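Troubleshooting log. The previous structure file for this entry was overwritten by mistake, so regenerating from the original sequence record. Sequence copied from the archived sheet and checked twice against the printout by T.R.
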Amino acid sequence: MNEAKQALKLLQQRYKIFQQQQVTFTTALERCRENALDRIHPVRTLAQVRKYLDTSCNNSTDRRVLTLFLDICSELVDVCAQLHELQPDNAAATPFLQSCLDLLSPTNDLSDLRAKYPHDVINHLSCDEAKNFYGGVVSLIPIVLDNLKAAIAEMDKTAPQTHHPGSGYRYV
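Regenerated output below.
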């Protein structure tokens, strides 16, 4: 369980780096959409982001930020699988983990997804971008991270508490 918590902590740190590059990310998506002659449709799926990266990405900065996004999503899937292996029959955590896996599916439609308070990722977009093009894709990681934290909290509640010799109070 500690390994999964550590992996989640590292992912949260990588996400903070990604957050600082959100404008670069949306600009990269915009350029890719333009290159793909796909400016009227919103970014709906992770597969679409992958396709933009593979076929419509023309510069290294765009490639780097799109790759960072997709790598974080891939690592989130790995953490979900790792947590599920730890407690496969945890009825309280399973819905959170399943939600994460559903959201991170390459073909899942993200267009209606919106992160809520305290996440401000939507606030960094223009009104048009937030409503029509990128609101779902920029909301994905914060929502998945929230679900993973909830799953870990549920697992911690139901995990058997063990007493380790040598821990606790010391009587003098």
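Residues 100 and 161 are 27 Å apart (CA to CA). Archived copy saved in two places this time.
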